[in-house]
Amino acid sequence: MIDTAMLMAAGLGKRMRPLTATRPKPLVKVAGKPLMDHALDRLSAGGIRKVVVNVHYLADTVEAHLNAHSNGMNVLISDERAKLLETGGGLIHARSLLGDDPFFCANSDNLWIDGPQETLGMMQRIWDAERMDALLLLVPLARAHCHSGPGDFHMDPSGRLSRRKTSHVAPFVFTGVQILSPSLLVDPPSDVFSTNIFWNRAIEAGRLYGVSHQGLWFDVGTPGAIPLVESMLAHG
Length: 236
Hints:
Radius of gyration: 17 Å
Number of strands: 13
Structural class: alpha/beta
Number of helices: 7
Shape: globular
Order of helices and strands: EEEHEHEHHEEHEEEEHEEH
């Protein structure tokens, strides 16, 4: 059973300004609760016992919040105060804290609600380390609430993923939640880079897979998205 996760919480939250002028984006409240706490609740419900959280912008505020709201999990801080490393660089920086087994990785600024099955448990049942280097939780573009992009991936009947072609629309959007094999976290191109580098390698090897989320998902990227999300959560 996978019991470790990384929660991405180091970003500057530029698209969420002015709300992030005085607080980090993970602590912006939606439906009365900080975004980070929504994610921590889902991780705890999914059996996560150790969570590694990277911090950069207003890092002291994030750490203080985590000290008071750990959900009973063992919280370890991956300190990026000196330099923001993006998602791929953040994973490499936290590598020694994550251990040698597959782990979950989740963004702290996306909000998801479980469908008929508990989401992380469903992903664990599908995860197959023999075939996969990464398993991404995807949501159909038509159900990607508050998301304005053209989609990210195509998925074949076996679950194997390929990229959206330029100037085309893809049927699935990445939710910010994934399972990663530590074996993928090698040969960084620099200290600052995106997780896309790892995904591209997995695609080339035929080892990037996805699963469609059956619940609700919201891209809480801007202040304007918050009342829309809150309305949908309140009224369905």
